Input
Amino acid sequence: MVEVKDGKKILTTPISREDLADIHIGDIVYLSGHLTTCRDVAHRRVVEEGRQIPVDVRDEAILHAGPIIRPLGNGKYEMVSVGPTTSMRMEKFEYEFVKTTGVRVIVGKGGMKENTARACKDFGAIHCVFPAGNAVVAATAVEEIERAEWLDLGMPETLWNCRVKEFGPLIVSIDSEGRNYFEEKKVEYNKKKDAVAEDICKQVGFIK
Amino acid sequence: MSNKTPREKMMSIISQFVGYTAIRLPDDVIAKLSELREKETSPMTKVIYDTMFRNQELAQKLGRPSCQDTGCLQFWVKCGTHFPLIDELEALLKDAVVDATFATPLRHNSVETFDEYNTGKNVGKGTPTVFWDIVPNSDTCEVYTYMAGGGCSLPGNATVLMPGEGYEGVTKFVLDRMTSYGLNACPPLLVGVGVATSVETAALLSKKALMRPIGSHNENERAAKMERLLEDGINAIGLGPQGMGGNYSVMGVNIENTARHPSVIGVAVNVGCWSHRRGHIVFQKDLSFEVTTHSGFVYDENKAPAIIPA
Output
């Protein structure tokens, strides 16, 4: 479901392909509902080993992150600190991962490339950036850790199935049309860089 | 009253200070981020800066590390040969990291190489890293603390240029790193550049450059000019906060240099992320101390050491 509340665009799980149709790169959204941490080894298990993901993330969201968790006993856990990790590490798995799991929203840090963009377009998903370095803002948007699966992977790699409220801001970096914010930006940055280099080089001829 | 030995006291002060630097950014970084925040104009940059400042407030209020990556600890010590604890300093710093790790808490960021396991104590073979500057005929000890995060360590690079490539080559080497890796390293960045002979001399200087206050300049006029040119130039690329575009890219560019072999120019670049967790504390021989980076730090003499799991 998608709604606008106090000027904020909020996606609430379950999310449909249609919910994402009007969301474009550069937009800012917030997420309520279910968000599951999922990174390197979990992707490998799903894609390379063909194992079924023990948390059903269909129409939900994943977060590329390795959090600091405090065990509270009785299978309960507290989210102390969480921030996104570099999404690019999951790029080689993401097309198959989205296809297999039906996940709608991928949250991480930095951009991803053509595999993920193709997945977003083919299956109706988006990739978003949570501004990194803001671990306390993120942790306090987690209302409860409802389940923990694949605990054998250790604290950073466990699938922490969280219920979140207005988790964000999430800046859309790949939209469901497959447009890629960072790739478009990089073209602009490199063009400006060449102009800057030319200008500086004229002024640093110190070896004569 | 505390009855700590001098070693225990210095360990405890460093531990508390390291823990504090995980929660609160240095005064110069906060001031610079506040300045850049005001100069950004797009709605996206405003949302990102609002999040950053709200995060720092929450971290302080809840006493939690502001970023989950509390880095692998590095110390740059400028120690007088007559400082009473010089012999114990390196071991004491290691104890301080373990203590701060369980007291704060900090993330366990020390993985033994080749054996590839996390020590679970945030220290290991050669970590924390201690860089030494020995100061003859002095009895004081300056300690720079730094949390080297994964994200901001990644863009680090060093090379040796031929003199024909000149400072133009240095310029291109630094700029290329900004648009390939820098945008992912949590801008606005502090960029450290070392110019010397070989990779390690340049690399050490590039890290040392990151210890300098934001807004300070190299005492050599040409090096200072190059700092300003690179700062303005990288800003003009417009990486913005998080590399997502904006009016500014960096908090500053600091260059450190030495003389070089006539046949080569060693150059290295190192970056600090916006969450630039560096501290500076100066001890006198009686262990009275002054913190120059964090005006809010208060040492609690009666705080017991952390309980370290076996």
Q: What stands out?
A: The first helix of chain A runs from residue 40 to 47. The radius of gyration of chain A is 19 Å. Chain A touches chain B through 46 residues (CB under 8 Å). Chain A has a mean pLDDT of 95.
